[in-house]
Design goal:
heterotrimer, A mainly alpha (391), B mainly alpha (134), C alpha+beta (262), A: 391 residues, mainly alpha, Formate dehydrogenase/DMSO reductase fold, 14 helices, C: 262 residues, alpha+beta, Alpha-Beta Plaits, four-stranded mixed beta sheet, two-stranded antiparallel sheet, 8 helices, 11 strands, 26% helix, 15% strand
Chain lengths: 391, 134, 262
């Protein structure tokens, strides 16, 4: 099936080569980082994780959100997701690939990555994160490829994938839960030390992931002969609506606990993010932008009239995606480190090389996504063609 | 066979690349590594003997260094009793390099030949070699 | 005999697995003749090393600088001269920042602004060790939380986990920023985490930590599990505080005020 990715229009190849060029530039900057060290980024002793780990965290969520298609289709027999299920699974593959690359980009000694295997340490959450992420990648490649291959021959998927599909459901939940546990179990970081962290992660993931999927589905409809269909997109829109409300609700719960209790350590990070602390407030405009976008998104999504209009739905999905990207891919990580354990503020802002490397990893993800989608859509288009010819 | 011509051209290009190291070095003699032991400390020794036999050290020094590292650093056991019963303090920088103070002629000689780049020197400080260089 | 392509591929797969297994077998066999490893008899030993910092005895700026300088000099700690790349094993901060949970504006004059020395607390229940995915940071039998720079992959999970801000990362090659190299001690390489090691290399030689030696009695080092140790004697006669509310059981104690009679 992979050969389908090797034939395409000029526009397809133009896009591929554009992505390759971006990846090339990112890679050149990565080589610079590899030679110089992570000092090339904006990170410091006080803010020791930044954009890379933020992207990782955000993308684990995007990957996990494929389950929002799998559950309705396989557990509730919601047949309308049948045609776009593959888009969700392949999005998960691309997202996990990006997650792994962001971890590699963030490592001080990437050549020693096999130490994770040589010295397995079950008491470290990172050990489990490596296991669940790799497992999830494998599951989605196998499931996506096999079901698409069967579908191409107009056959039901082989029986042995069914258990894997069912396994992938709790597995998807696990990847984001374990990622939340990376943060939620650290004693000296009150901003992260919250039992609702995993739930909040999952809620924001199930909003941002399907929002991205809606945008992708609309692009697919515009550029190819394959139409993902109005109803599945509307169903996804409802999922985004509920999840976005849940995600915002969980954030409000955090704010309430911090500010009604008036415990300084729990309030400080929120103060830094939304109001500035000790005269430092680099993230304040960004966090308010995230808040405004969230409010706009919820208004547009909750109202059925606006949600049912696909253009407005697309706009709402973009606002959801950006809002949650800021909140989780940036604010959540930096906020946890500010102020530091000595109640002092060191600010963080990504540097130019760091940003370019980040864009490069996104380009790799988009390349993987493009190739996989090309295969999936070619199969669908062939079905449409044969359908129109023979029947 | 479909596209026989293209496949053959591809195979030839592949073979050309794969065998590149062989024909590019053909006929060139590379001097055999000749590690030197003539440091002042070693020359003053009555019995010129490392912690284990020469043959053992030649083949297994990397494994020994790994074991030394884990013993000293992780278990706090900083004494090594060799197979001949002699006891040596475990310290790469302060023991190994005390005798083998000629990194260039002792370590690099073989490592360069074998094209291995151990990362020891990223952290461990090599002795000053002024008196060995000429 | 003719075999189909499918069978050939199967056979090839199985035989390459076989080669793989025999190769790992060779690699795993520990061929070095590990004869015997021993601890040095002259080394200082304890069940749980601990430090008592007597802030009453830090009077001048010089008292602080002495302990910082000796540590950073013998351990080849670089000085980058900027906050972003900063690496430090011992440093100071004011009381109100060191003990944010002890906020009390009615303390005797000068206490809030009084500086305290800070370093790794060598916790008995260390979160950094709990989170490390490669056991690069680990707790020794004598309670010291050590860091294996050979094994560290530079993920910095330990830095996020440490509630005492004790850990530094080598954002770039530290070598050019070490004013005078101590040839007896290694430097670190870029991309690994480092911190105070309670001078394990000195303890092995029967010496107390360097900072203790130059502190004129302001720092006391000893075995917390031994009721007759110096640290226990001081702790039993003076009121001490430590940042214990997070359950890490830190092994560094601070004496703030009171009569200086211990």
């Amino acid at each position: 099936m992979l050969e389908k990715a090797l034939t395409g229009s000029r526009r397809y190849w133009g896009w591929i080569f554009f992505l390759l060029a971006v990846i090339g530039v990112g890679f050149i900057f990565y080589l610079r980082q590899f030679a110089y060290g992570l000092g090339i980024t904006g990170m410091s002793r006080d803010v020791s994780w930044g954009l890379y780990i933020g992207q990782f965290t955000f993308l684990v969520g995007v990957a996990a959100s494929a389950v929002m298609l799998v559950i309705p289709y396989y557990l509730h027999d919601f047949k309308k997701f049948g045609k776009i299920l593959i888009l969700g699974e392949f999005l998960a593959v691309a997202a996990v690939v990006m997650c792994m690359l962001f971890i590699m980009a963030d490592m001080g000694q990437p050549m020693r990555v096999m130490n994770l295997v040589l010295h397995p340490t079950p008491n470290s959450v990172m050990f489990w994160d490596a296991i669940v992420l790799n497992g999830y990648l494998l599951l989605n490649i196998i499931i996506g490829w096999t079901t698409l291959g069967a579908d191409r021959k107009e056959l039901p998927p082989p029986a042995w994938v069914k258990p894997l599909i069912y396994l992938s459901i709790p597995w998807a939940i696990s990847i984001h839960t374990v990622t939340a546990f990376l943060y939620a179990g650290l004693p000296g970081r009150p901003f992260w030390l919250s039992a609702i962290m995993a739930a909040r992660f999952l809620a924001s993931a199930f909003a941002a992931g399907p929002a991205l999927l809606i945008i992708l589905a609309l692009i697919v409809r515009k550029l190819t002969k394959f139409d993902p269909g109005k109803e599945p997109i509307q169903a996804l829109g409802k999922i985004v609506t509920y999840a976005m409300i849940a995600s915002t609700f969980f954030l409000i719960l955090e704010v309430f606990t911090a500010f009604y209790s008036q415990i300084p350590g729990h309030m400080a990070s929120f103060e830094y993010l939304y109001a500035g602390l000790d005269g430092f407030g680099k993230l304040v405009p960004l966090m308010w932008l995230s808040t405004i976008l969230a409010v706009v998104a919820i208004i547009l999504l909750v109202n059925p009239n606006t949600r049912k209009n696909e253009s407005i739905l697309a706009f709402a999905c973009i606002t959801v995606f950006i809002s949650l990207w800021i909140d989780k891919g940036f604010g959540l990580i930096v906020g946890g480190f500010v102020p530091n354990p000595f109640e002092r503020v060191t600010e963080y802002w990504p540097t130019m090389p760091e940003t370019i490397i980040t864009i490069g990893v996104w380009a790799i993800g988009l390349l993987v996504l493009t190739v996989l989608y090309k295969v999936a859509i070619s199969v669908r288009e062939a079905q449409i063609d044969s359908g129109s010819n023979t029947h | 066979m479909y596209d026989a011509g293209k496949i053959l051209i591809g195979l030839i290009i592949f073979l050309a690349f794969a065998t590149f190291p062989f024909y590019s070095n053909m006929g060139k003699a590379v001097a055999k590594p000749d590690p030197k032991l003539d440091t002042p400390v070693i020359q003053q020794m009555k019995v010129k003997q490392c912690v284990e036999s020469k043959e053992f050290m030649r083949a297994e020094h990397m494994q020994l260094l790994n074991n030394w590292r884990d013993a000293a650093l992780r278990r706090g056991e900083r004494l090594y009793k060799g197979s001949d019963g002699r006891i040596t303090e475990i310290s790469f920088q302060n023991q190994c390099l005390r005798c083998h103070s000629n990194k260039k002629k002792f370590c690099d000689e073989c490592h360069s030949y074998a094209a291995v780049k151990p990362y020891c020197w990223d952290c461990h400080i090599a002795p000053k070699e002024a008196n060995n260089e000429h | 005999m003719s075999i189909s392509r499918r069978d050939f591929l199967k056979l090839a797969g199985i035989s390459s697995l076989g080669i793989g297994f025999s190769a790992t077998d060779l690699l795993w066999k520990n061929r070095a003749e590990a004869i015997e490893y021993m601890s040095s008899p002259k080394g200082l030993t304890a069940k749980r090393w601990a430090m008592v910092v007597d802030l009453r005895k830090f009077k001048t700026e010089e008292d602080y600088n002495r302990v910082i300088d000796i540590c950073h000099r013998i351990h080849n700690v670089p000085d980058f001269g900027n906050l972003k790349d900063e690496v430090k094993w011992i440093w100071t901060d004011t009381f109100e920042h060191v003990f944010p949970f002890q906020k009390n504006e009615y303390l005797p004059e000068g206490v809030q602004e009084k500086k305290a020395v800070l370093f790794c607390n060598h916790c008995d229940n260390p979160p950094c060790v709990r989170v490390c995915p490669t056991k690069a940071t680990f707790k020794r039998k004598d309670g010291i939380v050590a860091q294996d720079y050979h094994r560290c992959i530079g993920c910095r999970f330990c830095m996020a986990a440490c509630p005492f801000g004790s850990r530094s990362f080598n954002w770039r090659d530290p070598r050019p920023f070490i004013k005078r190299l101590n040839p007896k001690f290694p430097t670190r390489t870029k991309g690994v985490v480092e911190k105070c090691n309670f001078c394990v290399e000195r303890l092995a030689e029967g010496l107390k930590p360097a900072c203790v030696e130059v502190s004129n009695g302001a720092l006391t080092f000893g075995d917390l599990s031994d009721p007759n140790s110096e640290v226990r004697k001081i702790l039993s006669t003076n009121y001490s505080i430590r940042k214990a509310e997070l359950g890490t059981r830190p092994s560094v104690f601070y004496i703030i005020g009171g009569d200086e009679d211990a």
